[in-house]
Amino acid sequence: MPDDDKGRVVGKVTSVSADRLVVELHRGNDNFTVVGFDDVHYVARLGSFILVPVQAEYVVCEVTGLWEKDPQSNRPDDKGREMDKAASAKFLDLAPLGMIRGGETRKFEFGVSVFPPLYADALYARDEDLDKVFYVEDTSRAVSLKDREGNEHQGTIPVVLEVGTSVVFKGYPVKVKVGEYFGGHSAVLGNTGSGKSCTVASILQSLFERPEEFAARGASFVLFDVNGEYRPAFSKLPEKIQRLYLRANTGDLAEGLEQISEGETVSQFRLPHWFMSVEEWELLLRASERTQQPVLRMALAFSSILAEDGEESLKTRNHINAMSVKECLHGTGGDSPVSKRQKAWMVLNTFGTDDLNASVLSEYNWNPKFGNFPEQGDWERRFIDHLESFIQDDVVFPKYENKPFRFDVLAECLDLALLYQEAHGNRQIRDHCSQMITRFKWVAEREEFSFLRYDPKGLTSEEAAPNTFIEWLIGLSRAGEAVAKSAQITIIDLNDAADEVVEIAAAVIARMVFEKLKRATPRNRYPVHMVLEEAHRYIAQKPTRYAIDASRIFERIAKEGRKYGVFLLAASQRPSELSRTVLSQCSNFVVHRIQNPDDLAHIRQMTPFISENVMKRLPSLPKQHALIFGNAVNIPTTFKVRTVNPAPDSDDTEIGKLWFQPDNFKVGIC
Ligand SMILES: Nc1ncnc2c1ncn2[C@@H]1O[C@H](COP(=O)(O)OP(=O)(O)OP(=O)(O)O)[C@@H](O)[C@H]1O
Ligand SMILES: [Mg+2]
After folding, report:
1. Is the link from the previous residue into 575 a cis peptide, with omega within 30 of 0?
2. Residues with Cβ < 8 Å from 6, sequence gap 6 or more?
3. Distance of CA 178 to the CA centre of its chain
4. Which ligand sits nearest to residue 593's alpha carbon?
């Protein structure tokens, strides 16, 4: 044993098992205190470290229990007699955590491969050992980057990020490895008010506030800010970190917004409806599987056909129109003959092509005033013969292709799809679809869905195309071949949005981001981190009926996103309600106070490598304190999160101040 180790022996190992060592302290260590060469070491604090040398390496153990035993007594808890404190033996329970390997680098590694023998010496930990364990060296690294023009740029990049300070070793910084933390999915869990949002904001602040280094310009954080609280937290970031603040409100965009800060762009949150996939439409319109979905799919396909100009699509349109008009005139459905004819006219007028439109009716002596054909002359039959010339046998409908169309056009397309189905003998279809149609009308009218309904005429071609829209949203801008970053943080403020809108908007955007990055060549160049507040709402273990599809895309991202550079940072109060698939794919966890036994059990299940002792701390963690574990830190550590400044808009309600007031006291709250 090296000489300097001899000086810091505090006791001997008297019991060894895979998950617990017991050390008997040497007599003379009064009150568990050791006077070392460098300092006074109080070894008997829960959570402090003891090192046990094994050959050239050290097993690092955490103190998990302290007890005394009177030599006169057989049992440590013998209460029948006064304990002889001076003569009593003092013991430490230790949980083995990892090893400091020998050699020049002396690196700490989590996990123990060699256990100490009985009567091995136990040493107190010096500051340099703590440095190894907490990984405080190498905070940044020098790099040389080449740009497109071949110019070299010298600078430094951070290797670790300080997220707070250790609770046990006062003042010791707790750091996460940048590559590991942001190179995987992560979760921030804890009861309401325990500090999750502040932690997320604080981590991002420490990432972006590093003036001495290359800024994290290539980062893209998309925050689904369901409580509308993050904007102030990023208002003081360096100007070069660009923020896009998108607000899903129905009224005046500027209302209630304070000054726009340097580097911030404020805009209304819009998600044109044609960006939605068929499945997302089904989710929005709550289309049931067997009867309603085929009609909806057909209506959406019609919307794409309407947007096409080619010869094939013209033929298909004529076919659909002819089938539907024929059905209107001849069908046996419930409408009166007058309304049937009116509908025929409506179809031709709305969907008509150059070959077959409402004006063709006049060639067959149609009376526009009464909306019918003359009784004499067999005109209706002749017109139907004309219609039949457009009807083809094997029509293959083109698919819905997310082409821009007006929202209200879908109402007409739905009607056309119903007529078309009726023309194929599906007489009950209108009844079966009535719920979906009612829901469509509701979505078409409600203010909270206005962010979806869009007239393509009001948009530039870039705004109307899903690809360019999503590039803008994740902060990419193009100038020819070159791609530049136009924003690092995108906040989607969904505070004013209804619950189901949040689910749908999050699902649509997540899918679009995922598809965009999946198709990108070369892969993995523009990583995107999606920050999901109240994640249990849209990535639930047992989703609500309408959130099923929203959960599906996030589960897919959890499983496959890493390959393409799409990462999730999920914050939730209810880990037990959060999708297991998503949680099990997280490589790092920051866990605040959790008291609910179900949630605790769930975390324990997800993370079998965390010791019982660590878990026991979770219910009693104070605000702003958390346990961090995962591959970005060397050991699971309880720490005080760096104070967030400025804070998100998430202050606790101050009941004391708000309730108790003198008589006739006026406050300026609106
Ligand atoms: N890192 C921190 N720095 C400063 N204050 C903090 C920090 N963490 C927590 N707090 C305090 O705790 C309060 C609650 O924190 P926060 O809003 O982050 O909780 P939360 O877990 O996100 O709650 P909810 O689940 O309701 O959203 C904050 O208003 C702040 O006063
Ligand atoms: Mg919060």
Report:
1. no
2. none
3. 19
4. 1
Per-residue pLDDT tens for 557-598?
Answer: 999 999 999 999 999 999 998 888 898 899 999 999 999 999
Q: Is the pLDDT of residue 12 over 90?
A: yes
User: How many angstroms separate the alpha carbon of residue 142 from the centre of ligand 2?
Assistant: 36
* Model confidence pLDDT, tens digit, residues 254-263: 676 777 888 8
Instruction: Quickly list H helices, 353-406.
Output: 360-363, 379-388
Separation CA 129–CA 4 (nearest Å): 13
Q: How many other β-carbons are positioned within 10 Å of the β-carbon of residue 390? A: 19
Q: Report CA torsion sign: 452, 458, 463, 464.
A: positive
At which residue do the structure tokens 């929005």 appear?
284
Mean pLDDT in residue range 635-658: 84
Q: What is the largest CA-CA distance in the chain?
A: 123
> Residues 249, 496: contact at Cβ < 8 Å?
yes
Q: pLDDT tens across 423-455, in order?
A: 777 878 888 999 999 999 999 998 888 888 888
Residue 165 clears pLDDT 60, i.e. is over it = yes
DSSP 642: P
Whether 196 is in the pocket of ligand 1, judged by its Cβ within 6 Å, is yes
Q: Residue with the nearest Cα to atom 30 of ligand 1?
A: 651
Question: Nearest ligand to the C-alpha of residue 591?
Answer: 1
HEC profile for 150-218?
A: CCEEEEEEECEEEEEEECCCCCCEEEEEHHHHHCCEEEEECCCCCCHHHHHHHHHHHHHCCCCCCCCCC
Summarised one tens digit per residue, pLDDT across range 214-267 is 888 889 999 999 999 999 999 999 888 999 999 887 677 767 677 788 889 998
Quick one: CA dihedral 403, 406, 407, 412, positive or negative? negative
φ, ψ (nearest 5 deg) of residue 16: -135, 125
d(CA 229, CA 487): 19
CA distance 655 to 653: 6
Residue 13 pLDDT greater than 60, yes or no: yes
